Amino acid sequence: MSARVLMYTTAVCPYCVRAKQLLKARGVTEIEEVRVDLDPDRRDEMMQKTQRRTVPQIYIGETHVGGCDDLHALDAAGGLRPLLEG
């Protein structure tokens, strides 16, 4: 998989864990995690970029996928693998 994956997360987030599990199952070996619970400025950045307050917020390449449910829906629709392949 060639696309860069960026995920805004917190330490205690079951949805973040589920999203990471799905991405790893689809061949993603590296996920750039931004812990918004440790850095309030990064949370502000996330909210400005995504217009959302919840985690995870996932980017694949330049595409904002959304949260965990959005990621699973994208996978079910067959759109995740092509996005990961860039």
Task: List its traits.
4 helices; 44% helix; 4-stranded mixed sheet; 86 residues
Describe the structure.
This protein is α+β, with helices and mostly antiparallel strands and 86 residues long. It has one domain: Glutaredoxin (3-Layer(aba) Sandwich). The chain is 44% helix and 20% strand. The protein is built from four helices and four strands. α1 links the parallel β1 (5-9) and β2 (32-35). α1 (14-25) packs parallel to α3. The longest helix has 12 residues, at 14-25.
Summarize the structure.
The protein is α+β, with helices and mostly antiparallel strands and 86 residues long. Helix content is 44%, strand content 20%. It has helices at 14-25, 40-50, 68-76, 80-85, and strands at residues 5-9, 32-35, 57-60, 63-66.
Write the SSE topology:
Blueprint: E1 5-9, H1 14-25, E2 32-35, H2 40-50, E3 57-60, E4 63-66, H3 68-76, H4 80-85
Parallel strand pairs: 1-2
Antiparallel strand pairs: 1-3, 3-4
* CATH fold description: Glutaredoxin
Shape: globular
Give the helix proportion (percent range). 40-55%
Order of helices and strands: EHEHEEHH
In terms of per-residue confidence, which ranges show pLDDT below 50 for 5 or more consecutive residues?
A: none
CATH superfamily: Glutaredoxin
Helix run count: 4
How far from one another are the termini? 8 Å
In CATH, what is the class?
Answer: Alpha Beta
Rounded mean pLDDT score: 96
Number of domains: 1
Please tell me how large the radius of gyration is: 12 Å
- The counted number of beta strands is 4
Order of neighbouring strands in the sheet with most strands = 2-1-3-4
Structural class category? alpha+beta
Q: What CATH architecture label applies?
A: 3-Layer(aba) Sandwich
**How many strands, which pairing sense, and closed or not: the largest β-sheet?**
4 strands, mixed
Percent range for β-strand residues: 15-25%
